[in-house]
Design goal:
Largest sheet: none
Order of helices and strands: HHHHHHH
Shape: elongated
């Protein structure tokens, strides 16, 4: 019979509890997904608003209108990512890791 690891059990319990809390969330704000710490590590900006300002983004609708080629070029020039998909994946990984307590 496998040995029971109480530390692992506690960690899994914490992750499960935090996941349950997140299940009520229907939207994640850009500022939550791209916090200052993320922006300082991966870009030359301190906020997602500052990063998007050269693209004239004020609203979600403005962001949705940016051609993907233009967004990817801005990301290549101003981050350590190759494209929006990579930047987004990294932000989601960090966000979920923090929120789940992993």
């Amino acid at each position: 019979m496998p040995k029971h690891d109480p530390k692992l059990t506690n960690q899994l319990s914490l992750i499960n509890s935090n996941a349950a809390k997140m299940s009520d969330t229907t939207e994640i704000a850009f500022t939550d997904l791209f916090p200052e710490t993320f922006m300082k590590i991966h870009t030359n900006c301190t906020s997602i608003e500052e990063f998007l300002k050269p693209l004239s983004v004020q609203t979600n609708e403005d962001f949705a209108k940016i051609p993907s080629e233009q967004l990817d070029k801005h990301i290549q020039d101003n981050t350590n990512f190759d494209n929006w998909k990579d930047m987004q994946h990294s932000a989601w990984f960090d966000f979920l890791s923090e929120r789940l307590g992993y």
